[in-house]
Every structure is written in C-alpha cells, then in structure tokens.
Amino acid sequence: MAAGSMVVIFLGPPGAGKGTQAARLADDLGLVKISTGDILRDHVARGSELGRKVQPIMERGELVPDELILAIIREELAGMPEVRVIFDGFPRTTRQAEALDALLGELGAPVNAALLLEVPEDELVRRMLKRAELEGRADDNEATIRRRLEVYREQTQPLVDYYDARGVLRRIDGLGDPGRIYCRIREEL
Questions:
Q1: CA separation for the pair 184, 152 (Å, rounded)
Q2: Is 137 a catalytic residue?
Q3: Is 24 a catalytic residue?
Q4: Which of 42, 69, 138, 156 is 20 to 30 Å apart from 165, CA to CA?
Q5: Residue-level pLDDT at 60
Q6: Rounded to an integer, what is the distance from CA 60 to the centroid of its chain?
Q7: What predicted TM-score, i.e. pTM, was given to this entire model?
Q8: Active-site hit among 18, 24, 84, 184
C-alpha cells in the first residue's frame, strides 16, 4: 500500500446519513469525498463531453453505464499523489466493486474499510418523510420511500456480502445523535 493512502467506502440506505458522515470524516482525515452523482451533475452543468454523453441517460432516470462511471473514478484518482478518498454512493453493484478493487490494486491503495450505516426501516422512512417535507418534495411519500428501500436492499446486499467476505466491512449503528454516530465510525477506523 502506498504510504498514506486511505480508501473508505460508505454504504447504507437512503436516509442513513452517509453524506453527512462522509463529509465530516473527509474533513477530519484529509480525504477527498468522491460522489459519482455530484461529479456527473457537474459535467452536465459544464457541458463537457462526458456531460453531453450522460445527460440524456440521467434525464431518462437510468443508471449511467459502469464503463463511464469507472472512467470517471479512474480520472479522479489518477491525479492524486496518494489515494486518500471516501466513496459516497459508489460502488452500487458487485461488478463495480470488483472493477474498483482492480483499479485500486493498480494504484497500490486497497479498500481500508467499507462502512455500513445501519438504521431500522421505520426510522429511515421517518427521516426521509421529514426531509421531503423540508425540501418540498411531494413525490417522496411513504409508499415511494419504502419501495426505494426495498430496491436498495435487493441491490446492496450482494455488495455488503462482497466487502464482508474481504474482511473490510464495518457495521455502524446509525441511530442517535450525528455526533455519537460519528464517534462510532471513528472507533471502527
């Protein structure tokens, strides 16, 4: 492993607090937070070549193909003197995780930890309904939220198993005050 490299992956259902905790951890440890969604939206906003490719895909509500996502990740990591990153929202599939492992292997920076924020479904629904109300998102009703959580479980369980089998999965209790949750995360790292 390259001196000083660190790779952390945040896993967890919508509403678990991944974004909040990842941002705080990135600040504290001097890591770059990589959110593929943010990167794609930035490319679309700038009208880059990549942005022009992915805009129609995103507008249709489809997933951007793995090849494009992995090219983005490769580009982000290539310019770093040492790989010190937090992935938020990536990988989403076992295929993406395997490709990320191969890329990180080339760079000599394996995954240090995959942090799974665990929150009971009823609490996730409560949080997401509150967020939808605050943000004025009428389309986020309880039925829609529960369906999103079901899809998340179906898609993410293989990823949880993948990182667990590699010995890097850390389960974090995502209930309670954000400060206490953050302390649990730091204890696991």
A1: 23
A2: yes
A3: no
A4: 69
A5: 78
A6: 21
A7: 0.84
A8: 18
Name the strand (E) or helix (H) holding 34: strand 32-34
- Pull the structure tokens for residue 117: 């924020």
CA 148 – CA 152 distance, rounded (Å): 6
d(CA 51, CA 44): 4
**Strand 113-118, strand 32-34: pairing:** unpaired
Whether 148 is catalytic: yes
Give the DSSP H or E segment for 71.
helix 66-78
Residues 6+ apart with CB under 8 A from 3: 82
Contact (Cβ atoms closer than 8 angstroms) between residue 24 and residue 61: no
Summarize pLDDT for 84-113 with one digit per residue, the tens.
999 987 898 899 999 999 999 999 999 999
Active-site choice (137, 147, 180, 186): 137
For residues 83 and 1, give the distance between their C-alpha atoms in angstroms, rounded to a whole number.
10
Query: What is the torsion angle, in degrees rounded to the nearest 10, for the CA atoms of residue 131, residue 63, residue 72 and residue 165?
Result: 80
- Concerning whether 46 is annotated as a catalytic residue, the answer is no
Spans in the chain with pLDDT lower than 70: 1-3, 61, 138-139
